[in-house]
């Protein structure tokens, strides 16, 4: 009997043994996070839902080959990013240069309309800060970029990141600290406080 409290590894093993209901539980568990991830690449919400569905189909087809060397979500995350990039290419659009698109909905709500108090200078400065943060994240080494993305954009705990990256929690803390330091340095350069 499959229950929503089963671990990802148990559910994956059940899917690999032919239990389709176990995959439904994984879809329910990760659907919102995957759609949020894909929305960073494919801006249209309805289109992002379609791409997420395609990513889950690809994951279902590939799950017999999943060996558990990373967490299920890390594996699904990679499938989601690749599916989104492939979709953009198929549509004749250019995918982002980096797997990390820092336009985090919590920080940079793309649906925000200009308010009366937003002067052109304030809007320009905010856009410049956003661009600087994105460039700083894209310039990070892969291990730092992954750690800070999983923490700041995906909201994973240090323990979850350690499991996903298969390293000690102390290493995760160090990577996130170094990533934040690099981003802060770029922002200080922008504001002339370097």
Highlighted features:
194 residues; mainly alpha; Rna Polymerase Sigma Factor, Chain: A; Arc Repressor Mutant, subunit A; 2 domains; 8 helices; RNA_pol_sigma_r2; transcription regulation; DNA-binding; sigma factor; RNA polymerase sigma factor
Description of the molecule:
- It is a single chain.
- By secondary structure, this protein is mainly α.
- It has 2 domains: 83 residues, RNA polymerase sigma factor, region 2, helix turn helix motif (Rna Polymerase Sigma Factor, Chain: A, Orthogonal Bundle), CATH 1.10.1740.10; 72 residues, Arc Repressor Mutant, subunit A (Orthogonal Bundle).
- Helices cover 66% and strands 0% of the residues.
- It is built from 8 helices and no strands.
- Helix 3 crosses helix 4, helix 5 runs antiparallel to helix 8 and helix 6 packs across helix 8.
- The radius of gyration is 19 Å and the shape is globular.
- The N and C termini lie far apart (59 Å).
